[in-house]
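ugh ok fine here u go
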Amino acid sequence: MSIALTERDPRSLLKMFSLIVGCSVVAGSAALDLHCNSDLQQGTCAGVGQDETSMDLSAAAEDTSLLQSWQTKNPLTLEAAAQQDEGPVRGRHGAEGDRKLDHDMSSFQTSAEAWFHGGGRVLPSSPAALSVLETFRVHGNSSTVTWSVFAAAAILVGAAVFWASSGSATALEGEDITADRWWLIVMSGVVQMVAGSVYAMGAWQDALRDALGTTMDGISLIGAATFAGSLLAMLGGYAFDKLGPKAAVTLGGTLCTLGYLLIGIAVVSADLLTQPVKMSLAATGAMLAGYSSVSLLDNVVCMACSLSFPDNRAAVVGYLKAVLATAAGLWALLWVHVFKAPHGPGLPAYIGFVASVALGATIFSLGGLRILPAGPSRQAFKEADNSRLGTLIFFLVTLSFYDVGVSFFYSRGILMPTSALGYVGIGLGLLPLTLLQARSEEQKPAEQLEPKTLLAPGPQSEGVTFATAILGLDFWLIWLMQFAVFGAGVATNQNLALILESAGSPSASGLGVALFALTSSLSRIAVGILSDKYSHVISRFNWLTLVSACAVAAQFLVSIMSFGAIMLGTLLMGLSFGAFFTVIVPVVNEMYGKKQFGIIMGAQLASQAAAAFLICLKMLPTIYKNATPPGQTSCHGESCYRMSFLLLTGINGAGLVAALWLQQRNKDSMPMDRLA
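structure:
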């Protein structure tokens, strides 16, 4: 196993591929089992769809032996089920409201923080089909057993790979420096594709709500749990510092898989469990998936690349952050066009697919993950390297425009759910793997290779400790900036559809969300490249000041509550949101060094959890509740939203002051020099 984790010969790849196939077989079994168990309303577990309002159970039974057996034990027709079930989960706003929710959910799917979006409207569901599903679940729990076995297998596989990766502390410097560098970048992108899945949860929160039989308040709690784990993000940083990127990513992939499986168990066992138990399972699963995606996947590969490419760290990190944002749109697109019922196998199959990909892809990525050794491997990009990075960016921008375009046209009713659209997205997402064939012209003879530590920076690394950094003012100035920008970005995105509705332009919600997602993705790439290329003219601290100023302007423009101002504010907020998370990684690296880079960066991520809780779950709901007229359940109009965005303008104003102060303090020296 250690060979497979440190080298990239055919035997190593074969071992990793075998692991992935094994996981996929188990996942496929679970998905097929859940397809058959949870989609009886489609007529067959083989995927033959029928009109859910007119399907007759006896006719469907002629096509599948499964339904024949089921009907023998449970002679309940759909018509009888419909009479017994008055349809309590039917959309409360009628057909028009149902159609609008379909469009709204798809339109904001590409946003990284769409999970916090609310609404309270329910997708149309067949009461008869839900009654059949309920009866079937009561009479059989084979799906629960399958998912539990899958979870146990994932833990065992993850533990074995984690043990192997932790033990392989040294390896030879690669024979081909170019291959080492681009395997690291491409495989880090693979990890980001997995991490991006957690940001697509907003696209299927309505299906999760219906499956668990909960309310929007319950879903909001699960959403809060997704990012609550960031409060402990420095534990992921500690794993990176002590064990290195391979072990940390293995742990992240395993926990991410386990998190999705816990959500899946809560869904397939919803009628066998009490409400507190299934909500606890779902919340725990969301916390594991969210924590691992942010702290053990995204953060880890960005730190590894920041250390490995000192002259191009912002460009590489910016690319990886853009992959993260774009991946969220791809996962949401797969849900809407491939898995979403009634045209797809449904939520359980989607969760099973995500879980299997999370474990398989992270194991596959281990062949390229490392911290490159000091020396030629860390040299600045040459012309050929810049061309390769440009190719990766072209692939990513193509996928980003594809995601946003499909989502926008679907939200406008121009496109219908089509699985082929999802398969095209997968194909575009796999294009970066073509760069794994990159080779340099000159290679070092094997006998000249020396052992190098590839996993962890090591205790002898330069920099300051976390205990020293946290006592300095600079640490908290960055923390405040991140709190303000993240909170404002999430608040803008989660309320965009409602804001535009109050401004008299409800049909523009798809355009607004697409604009935010696209500018957020593109700004990560652009600012990363520019901050490296022109660092002698514009420092990274200047970029932070510019980002904070954009956030202030964006929030003020949104508070005006006119269509033009809202769209311009959304554009500026997307630019600010994306650019900040590109610059912050190299800034922290350069300010504090690599001695405890992981722990310090993890502690900075805690500001995101604080912003999500204080701004999104406390401040905004309180303002909206106070603005709600007596006798009504929600507020609308300018008076509802203006005050909240004026307050966010003030918070980001404080962030701008912090950025200016930080820029002045670090004009001539870094904290690493002052605190050492």
